[in-house]
Amino acid sequence: MTEADDSNLYGNTITNNKAGTGKTGGIYVTGKSEGVSLAGDPCEGTYNIIWGNDGYQLCNANPFNASGIYDIDARYVQWGTSDPWAIQEGILDHFDNGSLAFVIWSPTEIPGLICSDTTWDLAGSPYVIAAGASVVIGCDATLTIEPGVLVKFEPRVGIVVGSASFGGGTLVARGTEESPIIFTSVKDPCDPCDPAGPGDWTGIHFTDYGVDANVIRDGNDVNYVSGCILEHVIQEYAGHGMYGNNYPAIFAEQSTVFMNCCEVRHNSACGIYHLGSSQPAADAPPPMNIVNCEVWDNGQRGIRIEQGWEHYLRDNNIHHNSRGGIYFEYSGWRSPWTASWRLDSATVVGNIITYNGYSDTIGGGIRIDDCEPANIIGNTISHNDAGSGGGIYVYCWCSWDPVTLIAGNVITNNTVSGSSGRGGGVVLHLTDAELRENTISGNTTEGDGGGIYLSASRATLTGNTITGNTADGSGGGIYGWIPYPGLSLVGNQIQDNTAATGQGGAIYMTEADDSNLYGNTITNNKAGTGKTGGIYVTGGSEWVSMAGDPCEGTYNIIWGNDGYQLCNANPFNASGIYDIDARYVQWGTCDPAEVQAGIYDYFDNGSVAFVLWSPFVRPGDFDMDQDVDWIDLGRLVDNWLGYDCEIPDWCAGTDLDLSTAVDFLDFARFANCFEGN
Q1: d(CA 539, CA 546)
Q2: What residue segments make up the domains of the chain, in order of their start?
Q3: Which end of the chain is less packed: N or C, by CB atoms within 10 Å?
Q4: Which of 87, 78, 77 is nearest to 110 (CA)?
């Protein structure tokens, strides 16, 4: 039977039928057949008789679904025996293969079903879950596992917490640092002939009928109250699914489990997968809280969270996962006006996310799709690989408010492969975001945007250090395609980045209307021969400003870049809408001719727009009054031998060579411009 919804077998005799060796001689049901019934009627005294067939008497090859829609009702059937184990041996279902649905042949006598509160203690360890006896926690029972217990699983079996057919359940597995609980394969990993490996068993599946974790967040702490919990647990070698080794090792489906100090490793698919709800928060399961865990060497993402609200990942070590580190997503189409259908807020704080992903991954370290707001704070994200967004990829198209916050992270040495790849460090696509006080360094891409790639995103970058990034294309530090107005760069240090064959070693901007650069230091960036190592502006970008403020004494420092410091490649327009306001910028020289030589604009090519760079800030003109005089010398003396100078103040501007100290090298630069000399 396949695709046989609502089929009913009643009062039949099915015996002595044959099939190939190891197959089902009786009844085989597949194709996602819903509502199939073989149940007898005890009031009428009528029932099916099914026995003596080759292999299995009944096989339910429908996929497992916690709602029970693919389960087969086979109560009150005469199986030719009264031994529950013999009956179960004649049935192939979830108890034999955790990816299949159930055959419900008895309310309580099924081997593997936990129907009363049960404790697995150390004295009974190890517990071996045999083939044909997957554990199902139902009947509103709780399975408690004590510290130090070892649980071994034979192939294709696992644990299910709650189901529609058997009722609710709770799993409480709380080990200790000294005595963790271990869920593993029955095989020995050191066996030279048949060692344990990924996909040996199914995994642990928390269903919508499991009791959700109840926790209290107190600042950075998450305190367990009740419900399902895995604490000081090691889970390994899981992931067997219906269509291969593609089943999450820990799967929370429409449910939540609190995970603290766990290690999830060597699994064939995703390490931890939460499938939440698209419903509003009041109707959805509580958020996932995953803290202090190590998730590594899994065949897909380390952690994948789909839908839900206010998920919290803190102080985890997520590394060497094949398809990437963390993935938050909303799966399925929705209009941007249907705000309840999304993954509503996620916080990722203090995690170490390294060596994840490979060349066709999107978001090697972290990927966030259709989530608002996301908070990515204080993480170390390094040495991840991707086809786009080596460190972080954020796509939050549904609204511009509130913003995604990326703050205080170290995003280094991530790699994007392929000439169409973008954003070695960070990609923001259709996202309103604030990047604040991050270190983004040493990232590479074979395409554009070595450090950051902005795609149709409104972003504010404040106080970031963007250094040593490389793009084979354009935008070594930052590439911005910004058709939505309002890019703001304030107080960033953009230094030693490279656009190997393209333009804009520091910054490439296109369609960047109303963009504002203020108080940034942009030095020593590189581009291809004869190109712009500094800032390249194109695409009809209107009203771009890099102007300093002489009243506030704040200005951009742009010097020492390869080729041109600034190129305005916008087309000439007499209205001035494509001109760049670059007044009160410190260009590293007091000679106006040298300033103009470092700028490419209308004066070099009559088809492009102007750069308005005068008046400019001479090195040593600390009060921005257009003279380097005795008053400025007094400022230099006040900061003499100062150290720990840094952006944006640079010791009141007196650290002229940006070396972090005020010394004789700065005095030499000052003297060169003193009183116009």
Answers
A1: 17
A2: 1-111, 118-323, 335-460, 473-617, 630-676
A3: C
A4: 87
